[in-house]
Amino acid sequence: MLEIISEDECNDTYGSMRIWAALVLKKELSEEENFPEIPHERTVYRIMEREGLIHTPKKKPNGITKEDKEAQKSDNLLKQDFVAENPYEKCVTDITEIPCADDKNLYVSAIFDCFNNEALGLTMADNMRAELVVDTLAQAVKMHPMLSYNNAIIHSDRGSQYTSVMYKNFIEKYKIIQSMNSAAGRCHDNAKCESMWARGKSEIKACYNTKRMKCSELSELVFRYYMSY
After folding, report:
1. Domain map of the chain by residue range?
2. What is the per-residue pLDDT across 27-53, written as a single tens digit (0 to 9) for each?
3. Three-class DSSP category at 43
4. Full-prediction pTM beyond 0.70?
5. Span 90-227: which CATH code?
6. Helix, strand or coil for residue 177?
7. Under 8 Å between Cβ of 100 and 214
8. What CA–CA distance (Å, rounded) separates 104 from 88?
9. I need a labelling partner for 101 at 20 to 30 A (CA). Which of 1, 25, 28, 139 fits?
């Protein structure tokens, strides 16, 4: 377990399930005949708890997008079912913010595939205008054309960025199906995306003092975390 944690500075935030999965992978890739059996995940948890390796998130995520009450909304097609049997079938998207040292906020927009939590698109800016989410979608379609061919569902909250004419036109152009929270303030309707933000920010902040970093430095760190790490 300590070897796994030491492999990357962000691995210090691994919970018992991710440590267990990493141990199983090490066993599968090992050429040692006497590689030890991997215990149950609960046993891994008890060992990590005993050794002081369990970390608890300190803060719950807060939504930052605001609803345009007059804009036309889409139906909630996912209904909190975030399980996908295949890639590019169900996706979730949202915007989050991270304070920077230069008295600005870094706004991060991403699209995550429910199949494997992969970030299909990721863009960042010092504002949260509709262009931010459109650029994220354009990047995702360019990198993963099957989003368009599969008629993927992309779910978001009811923020004005996602009900804008610009975003809806792009959705229709690439034959993507739009889904939205059933009402304003229903964070559980987009719990998958909220979870990705919460985990990412807690793990990044556990390794770095982001409040002392400029937006340019922080953007590189966020890109590495979601698109590489």
Report:
1. 2-50, 90-227
2. 888 888 888 888 898 899 999 888 888
3. helix
4. yes
5. 3.30.420.10
6. strand
7. yes
8. 34
9. 139
